[in-house]
Write a structure and sequence with these properties.
heterodimer, A: mainly alpha, 14 helices, B: alpha/beta, 4-stranded mixed beta sheet, 21 helices
């Protein structure tokens, strides 16, 4: 018994040693700043003004202010619409559809398959800020390609970012992020042995039936993980929106991460900005718990 | 035109009345600041004038590196900064000047600068707006300059109003080179096509909207009638070039006698109603979502694609540089009208200033640089290129400056300037202004509701005890 325990300890020691670099980095770059933000959220710390010289502990004042902030509900609602539109419907569903399509095309050796693959990937390898500027170049009222196109065919320009700001940022983010889910699903699809489909086909199952009965159950654990990571990444993103509308017009595209950024670095209210970030972290954690439970229950 | 004595003009322009205005506002700020709590109330002073490397004002020798940091997108300042650096180096053989030019916008520069000032890696001398003096001093980031200016003979060239514009809690904190003022610019050609005269002058505030409506009805292709900044995208222009002049035009004030910020008021409602009318087809909604919308609007007025715009006096310089004759022929400028047709006015301000960091290891060097930059010659020439009324009176006699009728008019207009109170809360007030104007401009709220939300936004940012409504 003793030797078994010792063996287990030895094995764990190796395991812990292997884990420690990652744990150290996580502590340094994630847990540390998160704790700092948590501590800041109970202060009136600012980048400038009297509160910068003498930050004070203010208890739950920032939280009371946030939950009484009429803009905050709007910001949460915007975030939910943005995440559902661009992460769940857009990147997740479209990514899966693209992966199925590409998988089908590749298995049959269709011509332009690799070209399509490369095109989707190109959007993804761009840094977000460049993707943002690309879409500014499309949507811009005065010099954008879309309005230039309309002008060429004799139509009046459209204020894309003013009339449908949320739709515009959702489209841009779908374009930018779809490749990630597509890549993962494509990888997962290739692990499915073809003989499963052969057997199903022999049994007389149609394409939809085969997808529902065989493909989807195999993809489910991967799908849960992908959905989680895409949702969390989208929830925390703001560079694309900042470049396109900067949250405007009048808070119509202000999402929670952008709100935290604006409060901390535009209003220079670091304490209040940290409070928003802490609430965002809590929401993200609850997503993670719900998703992981869901995927475990199904797995 | 007869010989104009610019010295005299400036001294008259910046009259005693405005000095009192400035002084009264400063007094309010002092009165409102927390008192009796030791270090919280008084600005931290990092230096002891009695010697050491801390802050011995000139007279001694200057050694070591002087780190100068400033933003400039337009590219007009670098040659003068380098000229000043060279002057310091030739005067003090042991001194070196390292220049950190940031080719980014003022807002971005300020955020970067604050993060630096919050750390220990500070520039010795930096260049940001004079309206930021209050919040920078309160944070303990900047050095009071009283001991330096008291030994600087040239300080006598700075009129009282200019001095009080850079005075906060009884100390001088920054040295300005050019003052801010604004004009209601109009395109003579666009207005004439709309049936108005080339020497158009609005009789009252409604006159601006009427002229814009006339331009709209003239249906000239590619001509926008009017641009009224709104929302966060308009940056400080939403306040200084739109909301604040309108508020004053309708007889409102930013603060009451006790220093509380005024939210909802009859004047605020009128301003919001004005916004609603302007954004009903006269002013482009793209202002709310464009990045730096003023870039496009300034460009459009310069080439005739925009008929009316209230903007900084310095903007004229960009147009004149691109096309001097065309600008003089087509661009007209007026003061801001009032609701009743009472005396028109402009908005003044201390402009962009040089500051010394409180944590600077080389304050004497920083001060030498500031002196070398703010000579009458550089101040006169720079303001002639980047048009502002000069901060020091004798700079107005520099040939390049006094030969420009535009600059003479801008300087004279300072006599009719109202000044935004030098209050450290003003940045937060600007944000509340941005939020509430965006709501009206985007059509989310009507004027009365937007005025009420302005009170809420101010309360959110400043606390209920600092806000009132009338």
């Amino acid at each position: 018994v003793v030797s078994a325990r010792r063996r287990r300890f030895a094995r764990n020691r190796l395991y812990l040693a292997g884990l420690s670099p990652a744990a150290f980095l996580l502590a340094l770059f994630f847990v540390g700043p998160a704790l700092w933000a948590l501590a800041s959220s109970f202060t009136n710390r600012a980048l400038v003004g009297l509160d910068a010289a003498n930050p004070r502990f203010v208890g739950f004042d920032n939280y009371a202010r946030l939950f009484g902030d009429p803009d905050f509900l709007r910001v949460i609602l915007n975030s939910v619409i943005f995440v559902i539109g661009s992460a769940i419907i857009g990147q997740f569903v479209l990514g899966l559809a693209l992966a199925l399509l590409l998988d089908y095309a590749q298995r049959r050796g269709f011509l332009a398959t690799n070209l399509v693959y490369a095109a989707v990937l190109l959007a993804w390898v761009n840094p977000t800020i460049i993707a943002g500027f690309l879409w500014v170049a499309m949507f811009d009222f005065y010099n954008g390609s879309l309005n230039t196109g309309l002008h060429v065919v004799g139509l009046d320009p459209v204020n894309w970012l003013g009339q449908g700001p949320m739709l515009a940022v959702i489209i841009a983010n779908i374009w930018r992020g779809t490749a990630f889910t597509m890549l993962i699903f494509l990888g997962a699809l290739r692990t499915i042995p073809t003989d499963i489909y052969e057997a199903a086909r022999v049994d007389g199952a149609g394409a939809l039936r085969r997808f529902w009965d065989h493909t989807l159950p195999i993809l489910r654990p991967i799908a849960a993980l992908t959905l989680l990571s895409v949702t969390m990444a989208t929830f925390g993103t703001f560079i694309l929106i900042q470049t396109l509308t900067n949250g405007g017009p009048a808070f119509q595209t202000e999402v929670i991460a952008l709100y935290a950024f604006h409060e901390a670095f535009q209003s220079h209210a670091v304490g209040y900005g940290s409070t928003i970030a802490v609430v965002m972290l809590a929401l993200n954690l609850s997503f993670a718990i719900v998703f992981l439970r869901w995927s475990r229950a199904r797995a | 035109m007869e010989e104009v004595h610019m010295d005299e003009l400036i001294r008259q322009a910046i009259s005693r009345r405005h000095f009192l205005q400035f002084a009264a506002a400063s007094a309010v700020v002092v009165a409102c600041s927390p008192s009796g709590t030791g270090t919280t109330a008084s600005p931290p002073t990092g230096s002891t004038p009695a010697g050491g490397s801390g802050g011995a004002p000139s007279g001694g020798t200057v050694t070591g590196t002087i780190n100068v940091s400033y933003p400039d997108e337009a590219g007009l300042k670098p040659k003068y900064v380098e000229q000043a650096a060279a002057a310091v180096k030739s005067q003090f053989s042991g001194a070196d000047v390292k220049i950190d030019l940031q080719k980014i916008g003022d807002d971005d520069y300020y955020t970067k600068l604050l993060l630096r000032l919050d750390s220990n890696d500070v520039p010795d001398v930096f260049h940001v707006g004079g309206s930021l003096i209050g919040e920078l001093a309160d944070a303990g980031y900047i050095e009071p300059l009283d001991d330096y200016v008291s030994q600087w003979a040239d300080w006598s060239q700075y009129p009282d109003a200019v001095r009080s514009g850079v005075t906060y809690k009884g100390s001088v904190w920054a040295i300005p080179y050019g003052l801010d003022m604004r004009w209601l610019y109009y395109r003579k050609d666009d207005l004439q096509k709309a049936g108005l005269t080339a020497d158009w002058q609005p009789a009252n505030v409604q006159g601006i909207l009427d002229a814009a409506t006339a331009v709209k009805n003239a249906k000239e292709p590619n001509v926008l009638p009017y641009a009224l900044y709104a929302g966060p995208a308009g940056s400080s222009g939403t306040a200084d070039h739109a909301f604040v002049p309108l508020l004053w035009a309708y007889g409102g004030e930013l603060q009451d006698q006790s220093g509380k910020w005024i939210g909802d008021s009859p004047a605020t409602k009128k301003v919001m109603a004005y916004y609603q009318k302007a954004y009903d087809g006269l002013s482009p909604k793209e202002i709310l979502t464009s990045t730096k919308p003023w870039t496009a609007m300034r460009e459009k007025l310069g080439n005739g694609q925009l008929a009316l715009l209230f903007e900084g006096g310095w903007v004229y310089g960009g147009w004149a540089t691109a096309d001097k004759a065309g600008t003089e022929q087509h661009v007209g400028y007026n003061l801001h009208p009032t609701e009743s047709g009472g005396p028109s006015f402009t908005i003044g301000g201390p402009g962009t200033c040089w500051y010394i960091s409180a944590k600077s290891p080389n304050k004497p060097g920083a001060w030498e640089f500031i002196k070398a930059f703010n000579t009458a010659d550089i101040v006169g020439k720079l303001n002639a290129e980047d048009p502002h009324p000069v901060a020091r009176a004798d700079a107005a006699d520099v040939a390049e400056f006094k030969s420009s009728p535009y600059l003479v008019a801008s300087t004279a207009a300072l006599a009719k300037a109202k000044f935004v109170p030098p209050d450290p809360s003003y940045s937060k007030v600007i944000e509340a202004i941005q939020k509430s104007t965006a709501r009206v401009a985007a059509g989310e709220l009507g004027p009365d509701d937007a005025a009420k939300r302005y009170t809420d936004d101010l309360t959110q940012a400043l606390g209920a005890d600092k806000v009132t409504s009338l």
